[in-house]
Structures are given as C-alpha cells and as structure tokens.
Amino acid sequence: MIKFHILTLFPDLFSGFLKESILARAQKQGLIEIYVYNLRDWGIGKHNQVDDSPYGGGTGMVIMMEPIDVAIKEITKDWMPKKNRKILLTPQGKIYNQKKAEDLSKYENVLLICGRYEGFDERIRALVDEELSIGNYILNGGEVAAMAVVESVFRLLPGVLTKEEATRIETFHDGLLEYPQYTRPEDYYGKKVPPVLLSGNHAKIEKWRHEQAVKKTIEKRPDLLDGRD
Ligand code: 6GU
C-alpha cells in the first residue's frame, strides 16, 4: 500500500481527480491512500502568508521557507527515511518517465510538493530528496504534474488493474507502443478492419498484433527501442 501526500496551494484542483473511477476504486480497496494538504494552513500570521517579495527586487512573489519547512516536518514526522520520498515538482527537475514511476511505486510514502512557477525560496530545494518535471514546457504550478505522477504510479500497483489488463500490458507493451485496436463496425464508410482480426485464428492474431506493435514503435517512437535487438 502506498500513501501519497500532496502539498499545494490549490487543493480543490484534486477533488475531481480523486473521485475518478479507477482511482476511487483503488482507494476503497485500500491499495492507495491520497492526502491533500493546503500549504496555506501553514501560513504565517493572521493572513496565513505563504509568500513574500524577492530579495534583490523584481516582480512576483516567492514562496517562503517556513510554511514549507514546517509542513514537511509535520507531514513526514512518523516516516522512516528509507521507504519514503520527498519530491519537489518544478520545471527544473529531472524529466519524469515510466522508469521513475516504477521506482516510486515501491515506496510507502511519497510527498509531492507542488511548486508555483513564479518561484520559491531556493533553500526549499535542500528540504527534498529530488526535483521532478513532467516535460519541457511551463505550467503555472506542479498540480497537474502531481496528478500525472499519482496516476502513472498507482496503475502499477498490484491489484489496481485486473489480471487480464496487467498481462496484456506486460506481454505486448514491454516497451512497445500499443497494437492497433478496432471495434464495430467492420466497415466504416469504406474504412475496413484488418481481416486477420475477424479470422478467429488466435495464434495468427497474436502474431499480427506483436508485429504491428513493433512496426508502430519503429515508425512513431524509435527512441523507445534504443539499446534493444
Ligand atoms: Cl513539475 N511544474 C511546472 N510549473 N511546470 C512544469 C512541470 C512542473 N513539469 C513540466 N512543466
């Protein structure tokens, strides 16, 4: 069982996401727990201040050390360091990928701190284990990135996908793109379903699907095959 802890200034962004069907089911089954914390709750003074103007001048506001530092300390107070991960989501991080998702799925607790793009005090970086980004583009904050991380990790947990789904992904996906799929009708205004899929010959269908997955990968994402025969 994995526990995600999300620290954000915009907790409401997560309410719809957390109710999504597979994620809701996984939470009910006790495969995953997700806690969303409002950074504002650790704000300073009667206005619960979390940011301030930058030293040296300039526009915009900078997230302050204290609310983040105290929030991290409180959220992680009972954690044993080895099985837990504290992550800052920022465009300056290493690019997130499937391998990273697999690594994270082995932790007991994962804290995702959603940075704001305008910035946070540089010293905050020293409070976390690593920084992650979900790609080379700029978002206003780490919230969408946090959802990407949660969704990609939780579907790897044993019991989340059905046995059938998991087997299909392992045997075919194995680093390849998905083979082409079709459903009714057989003929859509002249665009036809490949005849092999209607043949009823399962061995032939399996072979065709694997070939198609390889072909598609070579054509669309040859980078996925780097270092393979
Ligand atoms: Cl994690 N945060 C922001 N603000 N922008 C991003 C990102 C994260 N990953 C890609 N772009």
Automatic annotation (TrEMBL):
Which EC number(s) does UniProt give? 2.1.1.228
Q: Does the keyword RNA-binding apply?
A: no
Write down the superkingdom of origin: Bacteria
Q: Where in the cell is it found?
A: Cytoplasm
Its main subcellular localisation, reduced to a broad class, is cytoplasm
Got a GO cellular component term for this one?
cytosol
GO MF terms on file? tRNA (guanine(37)-N1)-methyltransferase activity
Residues at which S-adenosyl-L-methionine binds = G115, I134, G135, N136, Y137, I138, L139
tRNA methyltransferase TRMD/TRM10-type domain mapped to chain residues: 2-225
Query: Keywords on this record?
Result: Cytoplasm, Methyltransferase, S-adenosyl-L-methionine, Transferase, tRNA processing
Under catalytic activity, the entry for this protein gives:
guanosine(37) in tRNA + S-adenosyl-L-methionine = N(1)-methylguanosine(37) in tRNA + S-adenosyl-L-homocysteine + H(+)
Question: What EC class does the entry list?
Answer: transferase
**Could you tell me which SUPFAM superfamilies the record lists for this protein?**
alpha/beta knot
Q: What interactions and quaternary structure are annotated?
A: Homodimer.
Q: Could you say which protein family the record assigns here?
A: Belongs to the RNA methyltransferase TrmD family.
Q: NCBIfam families, alphabetically?
A: PRK00026.1 (NF000648), trmD (TIGR00088)
The protein's name is tRNA (guanine-N(1)-)-methyltransferase
- Source lineage: Bacteria, Bacteria division CPR2
